[in-house]
Amino acid sequence: MGYFGRSWELGKTSWRVLRKDKELLWLPVLGGLAALIIAGVVFGLIVLIDYDPAIGWSDFEVSGGSRWLVFLGVIASTIAVYFFQGALVHGARERLTGGDPTVASAIRGASGRFGTIAVWAIIAVVVGIIINSIQAAARDRAGFAGALLGGLLDLAWRVMTFLVMPIIIAERVGAFRALGRSKDLLRRTWGENLIAQAGLSIVGFVLMAPGLLIAIFLGTGPLGVFGVIVGGLLMILGAVVASALSAVYQTALYEYATTGESPAEFAEVDLGRSFGHRDRRSNWGQPGRYRT
Questions:
Q1: Is the Cα dihedral 50, 53, 57, 58 positive or negative?
Q2: What is the rounded radius of gyration, in angstroms, for the C-alpha atoms of the chain?
Q3: Cα–Cα distance measured from residue 24 to residue 267, given in angstroms and rounded to the nearest whole number
Q4: How far apart are CA 12 and CA 18, in angstroms?
Q5: For residues 200 and 252, what is the distance between their CA atoms, to the nearest angstrom?
Q6: What pLDDT, on the 0 to 100 scale, is given for residue 285?
Q7: Using one digit for the tens of pLDDT, what is the confidence trace for 165-216?
Q8: What whole-number distance in Å separates Cα of residue 181 and Cα of residue 188?
Q9: Angle made by CA atoms 110, 32, 183, in degrees to the nearest 5
Q10: Tens digits of per-residue pLDDT, 235-292?
Q11: ∠ at Cα 83 (78, 84), nearest 5°?
Q12: Cα separations (Å) of 25 from 5, 168, 210, 258?
């Protein structure tokens, strides 16, 4: 079976795991809602600060002070999304290590790591801004080649940080140490993980494709508004499921990388070939099993 075939099998196995705790799907939904609420509050504050009824919306400009408010809003929204992502990873790990997670237990587990998750979210925002700036500059100077180089830089960052959240949740280390730990676990298996992430991206696209097609074809017809709403909701549902599958998959890979053994739910999937050599183990030893 090829790399993409194995990624598809891992996606299906992750779904079978998730079906045992479907309530965990609420976690990415809650993260998205929290981010939207924060964005709404920030927008309202900017309007209060910068909107001038005498000028109206046509010449509305965001002031320098409000730009800092936007930056803080982005950080706060990212912290919210990452917190619920951490809760999802906690719930997935609880299931994979023999527990029976609930939304409450997952949130409780992530709450104990809130400070580290917040630091990691800030790091991710700052690095994301830097990468976007490099991408824009490279694209302006070198066109397609620059855009490709910038895309590779972004991909390298995502690969290097692939296991940061499971490490933060399971090993209770700081954000910078978790980043180094993730790089250590992945540095000899970057090829396999590149393909795995690409495969999961394809799975996510497949899940969101029906909603996209409905929005495109019905959105321009007599059922325009209805088509856009239904298509948009289906796309959101697909994104939620894809996010949850990715969290389960990340957690399973983390368990395999640190113990050398696949979780029982992944026994029929060749995680060894997905992650690297079958006998490769972390030189950090084996972390303890699930901790509340």
A1: negative
A2: 21
A3: 22
A4: 10
A5: 14
A6: 46
A7: 999 999 999 999 999 999 888 765 555 566 666 666 777 777 777 777 777 7
A8: 13
A9: 55
A10: 888 888 888 888 888 888 888 888 877 788 887 776 665 554 444 444 444 444 444 3
A11: 105
A12: 25, 21, 19, 26
Q: What's the average model confidence in pLDDT over 152-165? A: 88
AA letter at 172? R
Task: Give CA–CA dist 276/274, Å, rounded.
Answer: 6
CA dihedral of 215, 216, 222, 224, whole degrees rounded to 10: 40
Residue type, 254: Y
Maximal CA-CA distance, the chain: 71
Rounded Cα distance, 187 and 131, in Å: 20
**171, two tokens:** 């090993």
CA distances from 137 to 51, 128, 147 (A): 32, 14, 9
C-alpha span between 39 and 49 (Å, rounded): 15
pLDDT tens for residues 91-125?
999 999 888 999 999 999 999 999 999 999 999 99
Q: Where are the domains of the chain?
A: 3-275
State how far the Cα of 275 lies from the Cα of 186, in Å rounded to an integer: 8
Q: Residue written as tokens 């699930």?
A: 290
Rounded to whole angstroms, what are the CA distances from 97 to 102, 247, 255, 291?
A: 14, 15, 9, 10
In whole angstroms, what is the distance from residue 173 CA to residue 171 CA? Answer: 6
CB 275 within 8 A of CB 189: yes
Confidence of residue 26 (pLDDT cuts 50, 70, 90): very high
The count of other CB atoms within 10 Å of the CB of residue 3 is: 16
List for the chain the helix, strand, coil content (%; round to 5).
Answer: 80, 0, 20
- pLDDT score recorded for residue 219: 62
